[in-house]
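Aim 2 progress update. The chain analyzed this quarter is reproduced below.
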Amino acid sequence: MSQSLIRAISARKNQFSLGFYNRCKFHLQEPIIAPNCFNFSSLGFTSVARNGSRSLIPNLNLASLLRFTNGFSSVSINGVLDSNLSSDDSIVDNEDVSCERFMDKKPKVVYKKPIDFTKIEANLLPTVMIIGRPNVGKSALYNRLIRRREALVYNTPDDHVTRDIREGIAKLGDLRFNVLDSAGIETEVSSGTILGRTTAMTANVLARTQFAVLIIDVRAGLHPLDLEVGKWLRKHAPQIKPVIVMNKSESIGSSLDEVASEALALGFGEPIAISAETGLGMTTLYEVLRPPLEDYMVETLNDICSQEDVQSDENLSDETDESKLPLQLAIVGKPNVGKSTLVNALLEEERVLVGPEAGLTRDAVRVQFEFQGRTVYLVDTAGWLERTERDKGPASLSIMQSRKSLMRAHVVVLVLNAEEIIKAKCSMTHSEVVIARRAVEEGRGLVVIVNKMDCLRGKQNSEMYKKIKEAVPIEVQTVIPQITGIPVVFISALEGRGRMEVMKEVTDTYKRWCSRLSTGRLNRWLRKVMSRHSWKDTASQPKIKFFTQVKARPPTFVAFVSGKTTLLESDIRFLTRSLKEDFDLGGIPIRIIQRAMPRTPSGTSGGGSGSRSGGRVVQRTTSDKRTVSA
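Predicted structure tokens:
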């Protein structure tokens, strides 16, 4: 029995820990510092030198082990292991005693400060919402916290730029938290207006957050609307005590103290002065936010450990699962075709603002959700229009942001309006054709959605319903001949019908977009497909010696052609169509690049064997003395 205990005790370089702690995947983060009066030799430990350092080699029995470990606990960086080895556990001297009862007591994980926020999963991080009256710099602070220009920022005193809730990961020093950018709050508006709907949506999201930052404009002083926002916050989120931030304070001098004293009337404590544009005061904001966020994380992690009995290192992990890459999905289309309604239907919640007004969405709202074990980043873009000189202000910024979202996406969902198809008697307008062709040129997967099919319900519209389902796929294929097999889904986003069909087509298109084919399989396919192609002139028929895939996302192939002839455009279209039919690669762009193989000089490889060298290329480099074959 003593031999098994000896094996259970681990001695590590510059580290000491006991085997039954290692069994629970915990160990001492620092060596034990024993008091001077503690005699290790009485326990049977021998100090020996190993690689220049001294280690303790145990030579003890069970009773000595129990005496030594009684009352000790292991302390980790972010958590404390509470050893339940209290004095009421009897210490026995019999070496044959079973240690199962001793092992069954699992150590309790207790998280303590400081917390390393950089190692915590995003879904466990606290949430901070930025609120305030319109045009005080909420989106500018949001961009400063996430460290990129994502939210639209434009000086519009008489209008609201932000209308939806944007979400991102804030990086403030070593502090990490989920930050939400909200629309401007105006309490004295009717519920049917755009401002009334945005305020109601902000209230619903605020109920699920833990912290808030209330921004006031220091140049305007304490505005009466700021007091109304404070009252609104107490009513809808009485559990939240916001941090008061005085923005645009980079050029304010002596009047800053006066505005700070006025801000005390809000009743949320002393304000701090920052500048979201220049970064002034971010250190002070860090010092104010870290204590409450850290207290929240300690409580959250301890609750998770007590409920699920998890290990401390399961919530603080450095590694990410790369087996399933996230899917970047962009919803694009003309204004007022139901893009935001489709986003709410996919998320199964009222996440973005919807309504009958055209051009309601301005920001490209990015939302993360899980679908069948895969992370999906869904982007709802503003209505796509041809940019003209008349488009200025937020409209111009929205158009540019929509184009950037399309270029960053993996799969593009083009939304069409069934009502407009009936009126125009054609499936796609010029703007929608431009969107589709731009997606193809950028090498993205494409899925076409025909929305508002609920408008064709009833016997009088049954014939029109049937004609649309037959005509749209044909017309889409006609205007976008570069891609064959584009999936077309007919849905009603308002009623929530077709959600699973949309996501199924999106994930299938993404899998095809990421597919890879082996070189051996491609060359076996090439021999078969070349034999069934009808060449106009067999003498000038190009000879493809080698065919391989060099890249995925989208699939890109290289054809090595021997001789002076090259592949014509018709030949490349034939190979592209054959690849899509034989390997089920419809709905995604395929790129084929041809490379010329230089002819092998006769006599360099020993007679006729040189012509069957399998594509071997012999190069000759000339020196000043003689010709060297490389």
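The radius of gyration is 34 Å. Residues 519-597 form a domain with the GMP Synthetase; Chain A, domain 3 fold (CATH 3.30.300.20). These observations will guide the mutagenesis experiments scheduled for the next reporting period.
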